[in-house]
Structure formats: C-alpha cells, structure tokens
Amino acid sequence: MKRRTRGCAVVAAALATVLGTAVAPASAGTGAVPTLSPPGPYTAHSDDLTVEMTGALMCDSSDVSGWLSGTAPVVADISSFSFTNCAISSLNFDLAVTSSPWQVVVQGQSPSNPNVDLLRIQGVGLRIEGFGCSVGLAGALHGTFDHTVDEVRVDDYLIASDADCLGLVNDGDVVRITATYHVVD
Fold first, then answer.
1. pLDDT of 96-116, one tens digit each?
2. Cα–Cα distance between 43 and 141 in angstroms, integer?
3. What pLDDT is recorded for position 174?
4. Which of 49, 86, 138, 143 is in Cβ range 3.0-4.6 Å of 62 for a Cys bridge?
5. Cis before residue 114, ω within 30 degrees of 0?
6. Beta-bridge partners for 180
7. Quick one: DSSP state of residue 114?
8. What does the DSSP 8-state code read for residue 140?
9. Beta bridge partners of 175
10. Which residue from 102, 73, 115, 68 is spatially nearest to 177, judged by alpha carbons?
11. C-alpha angle 33-36-41 in degrees, rounded to nearest 5
C-alpha cells in the first residue's frame, strides 16, 4: 500500500512536510513505521499563521523549508523560516526563530481518517518583539498532515518565557499557535 506524504514536515507553524512522496509501511502490521522515498528538500507556505496572546498576532504569510529524511518517525526537519507583516491590530511585531532546526515526528495515523497523519513538531523556539511587548515561546506543536490536500494544520500551545509584555503575557502562560501550511515541491 502506498500513500503520499510529501507533507509530514512543517509548522506550523509550524508548521511541514512531504508532497507527492511515496510511503511504504516497513511491515504489514499496524503501527508500522513508514519510509519516505526519495529524501530531499521541501517548502511549505501559510497565509493564516496566528499567535493568540495579548490579541491575535497575525502574519500575512509564513514560509518554511527543510529536509525530508528517509524514514519515520522523524520524517523531516524545519530549518528555514520567514514571516511577513506580522501585526496585532495595526501594531507591527517581529517574529524570530530562536532554535533550529525543528524536527517533525509522525505519531501515527488519525483513527478517523486514513489520509491524515498525526504530527509532533519538536524543538520549537520563537521570539516576538513589538511595541511594549517582548516574549519568548517554546515547546512542541501538534498537528496533522492531510495527504488529500497536501496540508499541515497546526493548532496547539507554546509556553511563554522571558516575558516583558505590560503584564498581558507572563512567564508560564500558554500561547495558542494556529496555521495551515500547504506543502509544495
């Protein structure tokens, strides 16, 4: 049985993953570890990256790229990031990556949809800087990769640290990250 997974690598944010790649189970039993063929570079694009903190920090776009590995569970890394026009209301904010690369791990198949893989993006580190607010975010993001539309969807939380944000975001607060990344060759 072959499945496309040229997508198990973002997010997003965060976001990540493998378009048009053949995936073959390592064994016929359930819980088999897929292998990706061929390994190589990928890119992914999002038009809806949102960070919910003192308000919704929204970016016009976000792009990621990295390298697909040959086997799971770690199917890719995310090593290059860009964020365009990030703002809360009309206030511009800079969003920067503080740790790299991030690793994309396949955690299995969705129990409700065989075309969807469950992902964990680990090693995530971001810094947000803007008018009256500076905060670090770290942790792991969970999401899905839908093989039918080549999209990674992330909807999870990171932990705030080193926060100086007028008391609106404090150390230890959870900050929600959402994004949909379309994976392209």
1. 999 999 999 999 999 999 999
2. 18
3. 94
4. 49
5. no
6. 153
7. T
8. E
9. 158
10. 102
11. 140
Tokens of 60: 């016009």
The residue type at 61: S
- Which residues are paired to 153 by β-bridges? 144, 180
Residue whose entry in the numeric block shows the structure tokens 């990250």: 177
Closest Cα to residue 165, out of 91, 105, 115, 100? 91
Look-up of token digits 């607060």? 173
Closest CA to 62 of 18, 16, 105, 106: 16
Q: Is the peptide bond before 73 cis (omega within 30 degrees of 0)?
A: yes
Q: How many CA atoms lie within 13 A of 58 on its CB side?
A: 8
Cβ atoms < 10 Å from Cβ of 31: 9
Tokens 């770690």 belong to 74
The percentage of the chain sitting over the pLDDT mark of 70, rounded to a whole number, equals 78
Across 169-185, b (16+ Cβ under 10 Å) vs e yields: beeebebebbbbbbbee
Q: Is residue 179 within 8 Å of 145, Cβ to Cβ?
A: no
